[in-house]
Amino acid sequence: MKVLVSFLFFCIALLNVNSSISAQEVIDSTEYYKEILSNPKTKNDLTKAKAYSFFEDRIKENLQKADTLSAIRSLRSFAINQFDSGLFYESEISSVRSLELAENLQINAETNEIKTGVYNQLGKIYRILKNTDQALDYYKKALSYEANSRDSITIINNIANIHRDQKLYDLAINEFSFVVEKRKQFDDREALLRALDNLNYTRSKIDDPEALNGLLNVLEERIKDKDTKGIFSSNRHIAYYYLDRNNKKEARKYVEKTYELAKLLNSSSYLKEALSLMVALNDDPKILEYKKLTDSLADEKLQQENKFAAIKFNIGEEKKRTQEAELLKEKERGLKRMYQAIAIFILLLLIASYFIYKVKYKKGKIEQIYKTETRIAQKVHDEVANDVYHVMTKIQADATSNNEVLDDLENIYSKTRDISKENSVLEVHDNFETLLNDLLVSYKTDHINVITRNLNKIYWSKISDNKKTAIYRVLQELMTNMKKHSRADFVVLAFKQTYNKVEIEYNDNGVGCEIKKQNGLQNVENRINTLAGKITFTSQNNHGFNVKITI
Question: What share of the chain is helix, strand, coil (3-state, %, to 5)?
Answer without folding.
Answer: 75, 5, 20
